[in-house]
Write a structure and sequence with these properties.
Bound molecules: inosinic acid
Low-confidence stretches: none
Distance between the termini: 30 Å
Radius of gyration: 17 Å
Largest sheet: 6 strands, mixed
Structural class: alpha/beta
Number of strands: 9
Strand order of the largest sheet: 4-3-2-5-6-7
């Protein structure tokens, strides 16, 4: 039995379903941005969007540049503290550029709310959001999402970039973590 089977209760989206969804998103984005001669700036948010960004970028048929940002979010826990901190900034100016934030999941929305505010101050020509997963049940702030892959229930999901305490990012599917994993974690303080 693979190790993950002890801690993951269900597979929500397998590799083929994810691949098809990424292709659909890439077709939409390519169509929407194909009129601009300038490359679209994809801003991937580390580390969760790593695999999604890599697959999405390769499925796009328009020129792109890739930038990365890192934001503090959960640390070892599974609930957002609401505290957002910029750990790694962009390497380039986005003034007057078309920018698409590529995120793994929008949960409370606090991370993206901070990011949108931060990036808007840099006066991009346009700033939109593409997320692979949307977990609307726990949203505290309204986030304008232009491209969304799957809506997920109010459960903690891992795989395809998403982690639990830095683990399981490398799973080729997206699955639900057994609640006893993180209730145990909360009990440990
Ligand atoms: P938010 O600020 O609450 O929207 O959280 C955004 C970040 O929290 C995401 O980019 C993820 O890194 C992390 N996150 C939220 N929900 C989950 C989940 O179910 N699994 C893994 N990470 C999550």
């Amino acid at each position: 039995m693979a190790r993950w089977q002890e801690e993951i209760q269900a597979i929500l989206f397998g590799p083929d379903v994810i691949r098809e969804k990424v292709e659909v998103l890439a077709r939409q984005i390519s169509a929407d941005y194909c009129t601009s001669a300038e490359p679209l700036v994809l801003v991937g948010i580390l580390k969760g969007s790593l695999f999604f960004l890599a697959d999405l970028a390769r499925a796009l048929s328009i020129p792109v540049e890739i930038e990365l940002m890192a934001i503090s979010s959960y640390g070892a826990a599974t609930r957002s503290s609401g505290a957002v901190r910029l750990l790694k900034d962009l390497d380039t100016s986005i003034a007057d550029r078309r920018v698409l934030i590529v995120e793994d999941i929008v949960d409370t929305g606090l991370t993206l709310s901070y990011l949108l505010r931060n990036l808007r101050e840099r006066k991009p020509h346009s700033l939109e959001v593409c997320t692979l997963l949307d977990k609307p049940a726990r949203r505290c702030v309204d986030i304008p999402i232009s491209y969304s892959g799957f809506v997920v229930p109010d459960e903690f999901v891992v795989g395809y970039g998403l982690d639990w305490d830095q683990r399981y990012r490398n799973l080729p599917f997206i699955g639900v973590l057994k609640p006893e994993c993180y209730t145990l974690e909360a009990g440990e303080g």
